[in-house]
Amino acid sequence: MSSPHIGRMVLVSFDFCSLILFNLYIVDTATKLLNHVIEQASKDKSILDIYLHVQLGNDAAKSFYEKHGFQQVDIIKDYYKRIDPPDCYLLVRSLV
Questions:
Q1: pLDDT at residue 16 greater than cutoff 70
Q2: Using an 8 Å Cβ cutoff, are 70 and 95 in contact?
Q3: Statement: residue 14 has pLDDT above 80
Q4: CB contact set of 32 (below 8 Å; sequence gap of 6+)
Q5: pLDDT-derived band at 63, boundaries 50, 70, 90
Q6: Which residues share a beta bridge with 54?
Q7: Contact 31/69 with Cβ under 8 angstroms?
Q8: Rounded to whole angstroms, how far apart are CA atoms 96 and 92?
Q9: What is 16-94's CATH superfamily?
Q10: Phi and psi at residue 32, in whole multiples of 5°?
């Protein structure tokens, strides 16, 4: 899934309760996937950190990762070539 906003989606044909349940499902699935990646990476003692990037302004995604132990360590200018804004946050989570 490559949604620019984790846990957010606008669906005109869904009623409000269905939309909330769908959002919770997306966040739950993303959490399970991220936890699996962290768990698998933790098994390899040569992996000390997990790095990822989040587009500047994507506060929902940044908040999601921060709730899972990631910290912003930098802003990379002009990371993206075909989207605006082109900058991104660099986040890291230590495994040690």
A1: no
A2: no
A3: no
A4: none
A5: very high
A6: 89
A7: no
A8: 12
A9: Gcn5-related N-acetyltransferase (GNAT) (3.40.630.30)
A10: -60, -45
